[in-house]
């Protein structure tokens, strides 16, 4: 460890919004990487070095926290706070074997993520990006009865929500307000709130068969990588759409590119990517695909709330109290 880094510091892998940095510095001995003002992830070496001697880590979904990092950090490490609700970047089992608490940020980004998911849905099915590119091309144009025609979501289209948790429910509320029929998989699909807005509980197979748009809202686990692969895409309705704002590896992107190429799927909206930050070269070339750089939670109040919750989780654990939002194994 460099002599300037205090023992038992809290290593923060990326500068957070100013309000959160203020809160963090006021309550914790925070250290940052060697490029503390840049919004770029530390490379592997910087991550390992930064963790050495830390009693707490505040990390992003781009930081892979595994045995190697935990060994380098040392036995004084007590808490790892992920500034995200998803925590597939952290080997929680390895942390818990060492008695380290892992926390995430549930409950503060559902609405922002649902706003983005529903915006991406409308943008994809109504072909907004394609239309915008066309206008910017400067080509001559006139209003046309068959120009840029897409799906009418409000004319009885069915939305299939895969994983009706907090964010999925927030998407369902938006879809209900737009007059869509909704089917969903997941623990809350039979809850009173879901029933009230007309959600029909379904298994994945039936959902894929009947949905005009399928939207993914489940966490990535060791068991559900490529849960949407060739067979599932083939089972989707002819001319339907796939929206993913959850995690990229849920979808086999080569199989998705095939399904789009053949015209079986009409389009896809992806905020997350299988090999983030790399973008699938075939999908990048397709007009009917909308690609975003993982911005589901990128509302300013939401990012403040995520950062603040992570800081408070670390403060609680280092003060000998329970974490506010611990991750369960
Ligand atoms: C999360 O919190 O898991 C999101 O993907 C971050 O935007």
Automatic annotation (TrEMBL):
Family matches, as Pfam families: 2-Hacid_dh, 2-Hacid_dh_C
Any GO molecular function: glyoxylate reductase (NADPH) activity
Keyword Transit peptide: no
Keyword Nucleotide-binding: no
Record-given protein name: Lactate dehydrogenase-like 2-hydroxyacid dehydrogenase
Domain D-isomer specific 2-hydroxyacid dehydrogenase catalytic, residue spans: 39-327
Keyword annotations: NAD, Oxidoreductase
InterPro entries named in the record: D-isomer_2-hydroxyacid_DH (IPR050223), D-isomer_2_OHA_DH_cat_dom (IPR006139), D-isomer_DH_CS (IPR029753), D-isomer_DH_NAD-bd (IPR006140), NAD(P)-bd_dom_sf (IPR036291)
Residue ranges annotated for the D-isomer specific 2-hydroxyacid dehydrogenase NAD-binding domain, each copy included: 119-296
PANTHER family, per database record: 2-HYDROXYACID DEHYDROGENASE-RELATED (PTHR10996), GLYOXYLATE_HYDROXYPYRUVATE REDUCTASE B (PTHR10996:SF283)
Organism, as annotated: Nesterenkonia sandarakina
Entry's family note: Belongs to the D-isomer specific 2-hydroxyacid dehydrogenase family.
GO cellular component: cytosol
């Amino acid at each position: 460890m460099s002599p300037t880094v205090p023992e038992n510091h809290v290593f923060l892998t990326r500068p957070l919004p100013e309000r959160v940095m203020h809160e963090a510095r006021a309550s914790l001995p925070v250290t940052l990487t060697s490029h503390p003002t840049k919004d770029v992830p530390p490379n592997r070496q910087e991550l390992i070095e930064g963790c050495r001697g830390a009693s707490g880590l505040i990390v992003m979904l781009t930081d892979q926290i595994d045995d190697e990092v935990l060994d380098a950090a040392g036995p004084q490490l007590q808490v790892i706070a992920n500034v995200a609700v998803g925590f597939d970047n952290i080997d929680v089992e390895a942390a818990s074997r060492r008695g380290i608490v892992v926390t995430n940020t549930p409950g503060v980004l559902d609405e922002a993520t649902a706003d983005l998911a529903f915006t991406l849905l409308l943008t994809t099915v109504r072909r907004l990006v394609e239309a915008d590119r066309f206008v910017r091309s400067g080509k001559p144009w006139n209003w046309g009865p068959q120009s840029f025609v897409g799906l009418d979501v409000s004319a009885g289209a069915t939305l299939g929500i895969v994983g009706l948790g907090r964010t999925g429910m927030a998407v369902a509320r938006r879809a209900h307000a737009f007059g869509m029929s909704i089917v969903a998989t997941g623990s809350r699909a039979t809850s009173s709130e879901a029933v009230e807005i007309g959600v029909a509980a379904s298994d994945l197979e039936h959902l894929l068969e009947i949905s005009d748009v399928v939207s993914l809202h489940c966490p990535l686990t060791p068991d559900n990588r490529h849960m949407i692969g060739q067979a599932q895409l083939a089972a989707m309705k002819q001319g339907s759409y796939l929206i993913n704002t959850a995690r990229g590896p849920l979808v086999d992107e080569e199989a998705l590119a095939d399904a789009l190429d053949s015209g079986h799927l009409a389009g896809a909206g992806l905020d997350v990517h299988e090999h983030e930050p790399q973008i699938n070269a075939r999908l990048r070339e397709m007009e009917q695909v909308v690609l975003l750089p993982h911005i589901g939670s990128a509302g300013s109040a939401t990012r403040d709330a995520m950062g603040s919750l992570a800081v408070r989780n670390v403060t609680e654990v280092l003060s000998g109290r329970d974490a506010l939002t611990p991750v369960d194994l």
